[in-house]
Amino acid sequence: MALIVQKFGGSSVGNPDRIKNVAARVAKYRAQGDQVVVVVSAMSGVTDNLIRMAKELMPLPSEREMDMLLATGEQTTIALTAIALHAIGIAAVSMTGAQAGIVTNGVHTKAKIQNITPKQVHELLDAGNVVIVAGFQGQTQEGQITTLGRGGSDLTAIALAAALSADLCQVYTDVDGVYTADPRIVPTAKKLPEISYDEMLELASLGAKVMQSRSVEFAKKFGVVFEVRSSLNDNPGTIVKEETASMEDVVIRGVSLDKNQAKVTLIGVPDKPGVAARIFKALGEAAISVDMIVQNVSHGSGSPSTDLSFTVDKPDLLKTNKVIDSLRIEIGFQAVASDEKIGKLSIVGVGMRSHSGVAAKMFETLAQNGINIDMISTSEIKISVVIDLAKGEQAMRAIHQAFIG
Ligand code: ADP
Ligand code: ASP
Ligand code: MG
Fold first, then answer.
1. How far is the CA of 155 from the centre of ligand 3 (A)?
2. Dist. CA 367 → ligand 3 center (Å)
3. First and final C-alpha spacing in the chain
4. pTM listed for this prediction
5. CATH number among 3.40.1160.10, 3.40.630.30, 1.10.3660.10, 3.90.1150.10, domain 3-174
6. Which of 241, 268, 272, 401 is 20 to 30 A from 184 via CA?
7. Domain ranges of the chain
8. Which of 18, 74, 209 to mutate to test the pocket of ligand 1 (most atoms within 8 A of CB)?
9. Angle of helix 153-163 relative to helix 213-222, nearest 10 degrees?
10. To the nearest whole number, what is the mean pLDDT of the chain?
11. Tell me: the pLDDT tens digits for 213-247?
12. Which band of pLDDT confidence, cut at 50, 70 and 90, is reported for residue 395?
């Protein structure tokens, strides 16, 4: 008998028929005698729709009320999933995040899990129930409902698997696993049998939304091995786990494209010590995370000045411009420009550590396709370039072709 955590994403519970499928799958594991904890997302489109309605009322709604609102999406699916299991004669109980003992900090809409006390989950499992937990939500110590950031049901599943010391953690979605690139954009993308935490983390943070990046971080920290697989068939999926020696043989594990970044450029920034520190400190204090930073060579005579560009998440652009404006007099730069039509294209692979010439091949391929590179950043296992958004998907296919086929 094993204890299994199974997570089903929005499209896997998108209508009553899909929910019946989920129930049938859970029933198979129950028939083997396994204990099953099911984590579900809201039905696909529901969270987006709730956000849209709130923003129709007010552009920047209270984050506490947003959490109250968004948590309803998952609450619908837990109950429907429990009912679908009852309909086929299987004992099941649904639970909110709070009831499952998921305690978070108070940062509404992006809360972090602080601890999980799944006492009630254990009791219900031991009494022979399937336990269905609402993904994406938790509760503060003070009893406020919180949510864990978009895609946060992945985190609920991984964190529960860790807290319950589950034998198996399965993330069911609408693709067969993790591919070398988003199969919706690159038709030749291949399913990966396995991928390391670090590679999955880079791909997820660089635009591959198949897993929420924070959930992968959590899995790495607590050593939760998990499988990403399809809820529509029985094909084996992708195992996400600690790196093994043979993983370095493959140079590039995957390619990703992040369309959710914006570039901000400060023109004519005085070139003197402390200026960059002042700018990025102010952005940090406003909880804006900055990704790539490029500073040009100083120009002009007399008092030298420079241009400084950086990227932020698109939803943070308004806030960023406000912060920058507030520094204008203190710092004395000449102008600010922002560009939302950028794409960040990245290649990721632990094999990059031991293979040379990877960057040159990437840049050459882009050049051959007439694609200009605006910014570059690298780490030990990834290379990212900022390019024109309109050319993002074409560039992704060309780079995939060059490295993977
Ligand atoms: P769920 O609702 O199950 O959480 P998501 O929509 O969040 O599912 O994630 C699945 C989607 O992620 C797929 O439909 C696919 O288009 C996209 N995706 C992006 N990059 C990848 C990748 N490298 N491998 C697999 N899927 C990817
Ligand atoms: N329903 C939430 C979202 O759409 C959480 C999730 O699907 O994982 O972001
Ligand atoms: Mg998801």
1. 10
2. 34
3. 42
4. 0.93
5. 3.40.1160.10
6. 241
7. 3-174
8. 209
9. 10
10. 95
11. 999 999 999 999 999 999 999 999 999 999 999 99
12. very high
